[in-house]
Amino acid sequence: MPVAHASNPPMPFRPGSGTIAVVGAGVVGTATALVLVRDGHDVILIDRDEPGRGCSYGNAGHIATEQLLPLASFATLRRVPGLLLKSGGPLGIRKGALPILARGWARDFLAACLPRAHAHGTAVLSGLIETVIRDWRTLLVGTGAEGRFQTRGHHSVWESAAPEAAIAASAAAARDLGVPVTPWGPSPGDWPDLPLALRQRVTGGMTYTGTGHVNDPFGLTQDLAAAFVARGGRIERADIQGLESGQGGQGVNNNAGWRLRHAGGVIGADAVLVALGVDSGSLLEPLGYRVPMIAERGYHVVVPADSGPHTPILDRPVVFENRTVIVTPMAMGLRATSFTDFSGPDDAPDPRRPALLRHHLREVGLMAPGAESSEWTGCRPSLPDYLPMLDASRRHPGLYAACGHQHLGLTLAAVSARRMADIVAGRALPDPAMALDRFS
After folding, report:
1. 243-249 long-range contacts, Cβ below 8 Å, gap at least 24?
2. Interstrand relation of 234-237 and 91-93 (parallel, antiparallel or unpaired)
3. Alpha-carbon distance 381 to 344, whole Å?
C-alpha cells in the first residue's frame, strides 16, 4: 500500500482496545468484520437486514480482475450520449439523480476524467485488483465457502457481422493493461465449448483467463457471516440512523467512543467502520464529510436450474458485448445482469428493464420458451472518481470507512477487508486517493 498521510497517521486500534461496530452487512462489511475478528478484535456487525441482503444479493457474481480502468474517463464520457439515446440501452438517468449530479457529482466526475487524474485512478484501482484472487482465497479458508469461488475465467462474445476488428481492439486494449486474454480462432471449430443455441448466434469472441465468478453471492456472504460468528463475532439487526462521537471514551487508544442511534435505542462502540453502501453518506455527512455517492440501479433475471432439459448450461460467465449483458452460471440457475440507471432515493425501479433482460435471454437461446424466471433490482454505490473510500478519519479517532465500491463490490471485498484491517491495526497507512475526506 502506498505511504500516505505519513505526517499525520491514524492512531492504531489494537485488539483489546474495545468494540468495533461494522455498520453494513453487505459483502464488503461482512468480509471486513470477519478479517477484524480474525485479528483478535471484538466486533459487532450491524445491518437492518440479514447479511448479504442488500446490493450484494443480486450482483453478477463476476470477479472482474480485467476491469483496471476507472469508469471516470473521457472514453466513458464519449459513449454517454449514444448509450442514453439508444432504445433499450444500458444507461439511464432518472429524475431523482439530477439534484445529486448538479450538487457536484458531475463536476467531480469530470475532474476525475482528466488524463492525469484518470492515470492515477488507474494505478490505484490496478493496485487493488492485483491481489484480488489471492485475497479471496485467503479470506475463504475455513469458511466452508471455498467451493463457491471459481476461477475459470469468462468469455466475451459478439453477434455482429464481421466482429474481427472489435475483437482485435478489445484484445489489444486488454493486453496493454497486462490482462491475459485469448481471442478465438476464425472457425467455430476453434471456439470453446458453448451451448448449441449460443453458437448459432455468436460470430466471434475471446476468453479472459484470469477472472473468476461466484456461484451464489448471497450464499457466499452468508457463509462469511457464519464464519464471523463462529470466531466470536456478533450480529445485530438495527437500522442505524446516526453516529455520535462521545467524550472521553474508553479504550487504551484514547478513542472518544461512539453512540450508534437507531429506532430502538443506542448501541455503544469504541470504533465504527461504515460500510453501508449507497447509504454510507447518511452517516458520514452529518459528521462533516462530503460523500457524493450516487445510486446506480442494476437489474438481474434468474432462469432457474430446474427450468427443464432445454435450458442451456454454461461453465463460466459470458459477456454479450453487443447487448451489454453478462450471464453467469450460478447454483440457482443462469443469472443475467445489466443496466445502469442513475437514480435518487425515491426513484422506483423501471419494470421494462427485467422484461428486456428476458428478451435478451430468449434471443441468445439461454431461456427456453415458457421458462419461469425471477427478477431483482439493487443500487450500486458509486463515487465520482469510481474509487472506493478505504480510510481512517483523522478528525474523528475510531471512525473508518469502506464504501463506494461501485460495480466492483464483490470483486474488491476481500482486498478491501484486508486493507481495512491493516489500517485499523496500524500495519499500513491509508492511500489518500481513497481518503474519506477527498471530496470535502
Report:
1. 243/272, 243/274, 243/283, 243/286, 243/287, 243/399, 245/287, 245/396, 245/398, 245/399, 249/398
2. unpaired
3. 12
- Provide the pairing of β-strand 271-274 with 265-269: unpaired
**∠ at Cα 268 (265, 271), nearest 5°?**
140
Pairing of β 271-274 and β 399-403: parallel
* Termini Cα distance of the chain: 23
- Which helix (H) or strand (E) element contains residue 374? strand 374-382
Contact 327, 317 (CB under 8 A): yes
Q: Of all helices (H) and strands (E), which one includes residue 301? A: strand 294-304
Q: Given the C-alpha cell 427485467, which residue does it identify?
A: 354
| The model's pTM | 0.95
Express each pLDDT in 222-239 by its tens digit.
999 999 999 999 999 999
Q: Phi, psi at residue 149, to the nearest 5°?
A: -100, 115
How far apart are alpha carbons 408 and 60 in whole angstroms? Answer: 10
